[in-house]
Design a protein that fits this description.
- The protein is of the alpha+beta class and 100 residues long.
- The protein has one domain: Rossmann fold.
- Helices cover 45% and strands 23% of the residues.
- The longest helix is centred in the N-terminal third of the chain and has 16 residues.
- The protein is globular.
- The N and C termini lie far apart (30 Å).
- The relative contact order is 0.11.
Length: 100
């Protein structure tokens, strides 16, 4: 509902802070589907998320933070595709989430 309200204002950019937190699995998929559609339509979005599959699908750029500090700032292809070149913290994170 919040996404629909925001879209009624015809924004040029949307900000999302963990849009799927505290949602049941069915609602998570619905929200992510809407956001994927928005991305395909060219909506600029800045999104804080732990949904890496979603980030990998729609992001142009990944900013990876650890303890409030930016550790990585690169294109998604570089972040998800060139793991050896990532920081130690990013490698640890990616090694845990890319195997599932």
């Amino acid at each position: 509902m919040a996404i629909a309200r925001a879209l009624s204002m015809d924004p040029i950019c949307m900000l999302f802070d963990e849009p799927t937190s505290a949602l049941d699995p069915e609602m998570v998929n619905e929200v992510l589907d809407v956001m994927v559609q928005l991305a395909q339509e060219g909506m600029t979005m800045m999104c804080v998320t732990h949904e890496m599959g979603f980030a990998r699908k729609v992001a142009n750029r990944v900013i990876f933070m650890d303890q409030g500090k930016i550790v990585e700032d690169c294109a998604k292809e570089e972040f998800f595709g060139n793991i050896e070149a990532r920081s130690e913290r990013a490698r640890q994170f990616l090694s845990k989430i890319l195997h599932h």
